[in-house]
What does this fold into?
Amino acid sequence: MNKLFTRGIFALGVLLTLSLAGTSARADNFLIVPAGPNIIQPAGLGTVNTVLVIQSPGSSTNAMGSVAFAPNDARANRRGDLVIGNQIVGGSNNQTYSVTDLGVTNGNVCINMNINDPNKGGSNAGPRGPIVLNTLVLTAYDQSGNAVFTAHLADALTLREATLNGNGTGKSDFTFALNADAAAALAAAIAANPNLRLGLAASVSDASGGHESFFFCKGCGGNREVPEPATMLLLGTGLAGTVGAIRRRRNAAKSE
It folds into this structure.
């Protein structure tokens, strides 16, 4: 009897381990992927659904921040949002959004990044240099603040402003979407609970000036302009890194 019980417990443990491993592997495939340089105008603060604004302080070139829905956290604001990061640009620009307000129903949420770095020598000769987007994490929360979905950037990306002369905050620069697995998972989560709220976390380096802002929209459309060749080269490098990361994960999963 004891042997049977021990074997049963062992089998249950194996099944639980395999189940958790499968869940982790699936979640690891929920990726945020570059959808290309995409210039949206207007894109200034207050004109779009800005979720997060960060800026490298002083002589620092690094910045990070996050906004989450945590209504039960004593540090949350009156909207129930918890804003973290000493590089956060204050104000109402850092907030979560309900999928209903965004009109997102099938996982087709779009994350736009607005780079705001100075030009060379204060002239109109072009962007000063690339900025590195190290991390980007999208999270969906239920009404209690529980995270029910998350997707992340596979690898750091080196990006330039998408217009030759820089653009301030009036035009955005890059668009990010969810890969197929992540979009399907978010769609399922929204179908189960149409009142989800979306938050974002991001970190950058090699920033010179700022601020950098992120905003949500439905679908990855907008007014596209032909980007600089250097911009496309940098984006292509990021895409190659993303594809490589996905391939490595799949190969690792097959060997397990």
In short: The radius of gyration is 20 Å. The longest strand covers residues 131-141. The chain has one domain: 35-247.
